[in-house]
Each structure stands twice: as C-alpha cells, then as structure tokens.
Amino acid sequence: MIVTLSEPEIRVSGALGEEDVRRALDAVVDPELDEPITDLGFVRSVTVTADAEGAQAVIHLRLPTSFCSPNFAYLMASDAKDAVAALKGMAKVVVELDDHHDSEIINVGLAADAGYRGTFRHEAEESLDELRWTFRRKAHTAAMERCLSDLLRSDPSLAETAVGTVRLRELPPAKHTDSLLRRRAVLGLPEGPDAVVLVDHEGHPYAPEDVPMALRRARSTRVSIDGNAHFCRGLLRTRYAEAEADQAYRPEAAEHHQLLPITVKEIHP
Amino acid sequence: MYTKDGESYFIVDAHIALWDARPENQRNIHGKQFIDCFYDYHRNLSPQEEVWTYEEYLYQGGQRLMKDIFDDGYVDHAIFQPAHLGEFYKSGFGQTKEAYDLAAANPDKLTYNHNFDPRDGEAGLDRLRADHEKMGFKGVKLYTAEWNGASRGYKLSDPWAYRYFEECRTLGIKNIHVHKGPTIRPLDRDAFDVADIDHAATDFTDLNFVVEHVGLPRLEDFCWIATQEPNVHGGLAVAMPFMHTRPRYFAQIIGELLYWVGEDRLQFSSDYALWTPRWLIERFVDFQIPEDMTEYGPITTDQKKKILGLNAAKMYDIPVPAELQLPRAAEPETGPREPERVDLAGAL
C-alpha cells in the first residue's frame, strides 16, 4: 500500500519518460519525516528506456546514512517500486538502494518481489503495517499542532485551554490546514467544517483539563519530526555533495523562521 | 571547571569513547560504514574550525583524549560509555583495555563503564561477573542495535535482559546507559521506540536508566516515558552540537526536556570523539532560548550548572567542591516540570 499525497499523473499515450517516473515517486513518502522522497533528495537517479514490451525504469535511491533504519528503507524502496510499476506502459522496474548496510538484502528482495517477510526472513514477523500506522498517527499529531500553534500565535486572546473546542472551519485557508486535512483523511477522521481539530488518532476530543497536556504532547511530536527532517536532509547533503540541488525547501522549523510569540495562558489547578 | 561572567561550572562529560575504527581493526564493510556515519555526523554538526580530518577521526589514543577533554575541554570528570560492536570491529569499537587502563591511571578524572549483551546468555552473565570483579564499574552502556550472530538487536524488556538487570542489582551496577539504534528483532516495529525502557525502569526502580541522545530521533517518546518514571534520565549526547547548526531546534529540544523531564535528570556529554567538549561547553553556557519561543521558559544558570555536571556527579558520587553544589529543584518527581515558569515567560 502506498501513502498517496497527490495522485500521480498517469499518461495514457506516448512514451514514458524520466519525468513521469519522478512524478510517480512524488507519491512515496518517508513515513518518519512525513515528506516525499523526491523532495528529500532520496532519489539518486532515474533512467528510463523502452523496447517492444514497454518502458523499463531503473531507479537508484540514497539515504542520509548507511545506518538508517532498514525497515523504513525497505518501505520506501518497495513503495517506490509499486508506484512506478503502476504507471501505464511500464513493463519493468528495478529499484536499488545504494550504500546502505542492508543494500544487498533489500535489493535482492526487491528484485525477487519477495515482500517484507521474504526479504528479511527470520527478522520479520508479520508486516510493516503497524510501523506505517504509528507514523501516520505521528504525522497527524504534528499537523494538528502546527495548525493550533499558528492559531495561538495569530490570536493572542485565545487561551491554550480553549483550543480543545476549535473546529476545522476556524482554521485559516493555509498550507498547514490543507496538510492537516490530508492527514485526517489518511486516518479516516472527519474532514467537515464542524469537526474538532484537537483529537486523538481515533477522533476523540479531549476533556478541557486534558487539553494543555494534549497540545504539549503534540508539540513534542512536531518538534521531533521537524528536527529529524532537517537533520536527515543535512546529513544527506554532507554524504552526497550533489544532493542539495534535489531537495525541496522545507519551511517547517527552518532555522531563520521567526515566530510570533505564543501568549501562554494555561490555567493550572 | 569552566568560569564565565563570574559563574563557575563543574563539568562532567557523561559519555565519551576511546575507539579504534582504523581499517586494520575493521572486520568488514560495516565497520567502515559505521565510522563513516559518525564522521558525517561530525562534519555536519561541527563548526568549521572544529572539523577533524578523517584520519584523525579513526583513532585518537589516550594522550589525545586527555588533551581534548581535560587540557583544552574544561572537563573535571568524564565517563567512558563503550560500544562493543564486535561484529564490525576485530577488537571491538570501544577499546576496553586501553580505556580501562587510562581510567585506572587517572581515577580522579575518568570513570570506566562497561557493557554486556543479554543475548550472550549464561556465558555472558559469567563474563559480566568476572569483568565486574576485575574492573568494578558502576554503570554499563547498552546498544540495543548491536549485531550478534543472526540477531541484530534486542529489547530491554526481553527476559534475558531482565536476568542481566537482576545481576546488575546484585553486583551494585546502578546506572544503565541505553543507546537505541536502527535494528531490533523483529523489524516490524520502530527500532527507536523507547517503550522497552519504560518497562525495565518500572520493574527496576532501584536502577537508573540514562537514555542516550535523549531518545533522538524519538524525543517525544522519551519525554513521555521520562516524565512518568523518576529513574529515567536523559543523556544529551548528539543533541548538544545542534546548538551550532540548528540553535532554534536545540532550543526546542532543551525546552521540551526541561518541561517534561526537568533540570535534575539531564546530563551533558560531548559524545567524544564524535565531538569535542570545549566548544560545546562554551556555547551551552552562552545559550539562551530565543525570545519569540515563549512556549518555553528561559534556561537559568542553575539549570546549566546541573546539566553540565552536577547531575552526573550525583549519579556517580563524583566529589564536587561545596561552593559549586546546588539543591534539587523543588519539583514533583514526575509529570511536567514547573509549568508556571512558562506562564511567566509568556507574560513578559
């Protein structure tokens, strides 16, 4: 299963090219950093050739260190293969992960379409679904905190204890709001204007006395994800000098980004 | 000791290594990949003038270590936290004998902590007892992503880990430093998850669990378990150098930690030789939470003193001159710390 941020454009006619493959790869997300692998600079090269049977794509992926988690590495590589193989007219896809401690295991598994258990054998128990869901929930939590902190910063009269009743319709039309709606959709949470913003991953709102703590916990999740994203991007640039040109700007928690202060008005019993 | 603006700081570097990653000690490609990964951390997070050559980085030796940490680095006492990595390096990554001998020759300056691997079963328990009899350590460093034969990781909640903790109890090894890595068995779940530390800390309340690099990349999970378990501490290895490249991110890390874990359970470390202590100490003393981040209270001089040395000194019974000591914060043992401070900051 692929985490889809935007539907890849699938060409109906004409030969598939490198750009088509890259757009298909836009749908593959690093679950930990909650960002497409194309924006992160993880796609090292894409080569597309064609013969009578159709197009053939060879994709090389690279990661910030040799010791990035092998389970995430496999998820991204196998999602990449699935996403590109779904392109109409694509006859064969080879995805190779470069310079990783498990490159050999993962590349052999991908070539044989061995699946997670076939690839990692005795180290795999069931599936990576739980891992995926853990990080979808974290991505939602962080998106929720970004929206509510934006609101707190823009409206000094809003108390932190009051954010527990904020509805989706009260959020401004902005990138963070769109991002939250997409993450809610992934979790199957309501997207209507009257839905409460601050909810757990099952959609339950918080009792008023639990709201500040829920927001603080969400903040620690957002700090963690943004921090990891910038660190991993930086490490990739250190490891591969040419990677910088491939990375899209990530505004969240960028160093120069000054914030409007939050006026903290929590009530402590 | 470091002195700035009339304030003196007793410094304990709570996580250092004496490693040998030279090609002749590398067992296979993973030995090279591992040190290359460390070197990229070093290059990525260090100020330009503090970047070493790759050759310097492979091995330092005792003399260089003493100079970097004590002569140049203001450190009063440092603690070895050796990672074994026997599958990657012929004589291991952390050099046991060299580090232990150096600590034995400089007992007022160095403490040697050891390591074990619960997957070594009964034989490993025997070895732990023998090692402890010989070296008498108070703490161990555990790397849960250590490769060992067909296994590439374990959890602190595994039954054999509990056997080892019981032995630690018997031997008087009180401080368990935990370093999470990318592999566990099975690979189905997040290898960096710290939930197993929560289990172990709950079941062994008389042991201290110091989570190295404050749980990064799972800061949020670490904060949540540490706020609930009074015997869970945070080691600031890897987090410290973000002060240079990403000061606003570091402000958020330290802000979150002071909120959830508090000033009495955080320990400074350079993670030598990943980085050197001098510039980290200088910058940390000068560091302040940016004014626009009013969700965090400002970091106080007393908090810096505790983090830079007093907390680790207390855990390891390292003598601290009376005039440099500080009392524990008047805070509850668990739950978020001093939320009122944040209020005050917002009202300014």
From TrEMBL, chain B:
| Lineage top rank: taxon | Bacteria
Q: Does the keyword Cell membrane apply?
A: no
Which UniProt keywords are given for this protein, alphabetically ordered? Hydrolase
Q: Name the Gene3D superfamilies on file.
A: Metal-dependent hydrolases
Please report the organism this UniProt entry assigns to the protein. Answer: Cryobacterium tagatosivorans
Q: Segment Disordered: which positions?
A: 328-348
Query: Domain Amidohydrolase-related: where?
Result: 12-318
What name does the UniProt record give this protein? Amidohydrolase
Q: Which SUPFAM superfamilies match?
A: Metallo-dependent hydrolases (SSF51556)
GO molecular function list: hydrolase activity
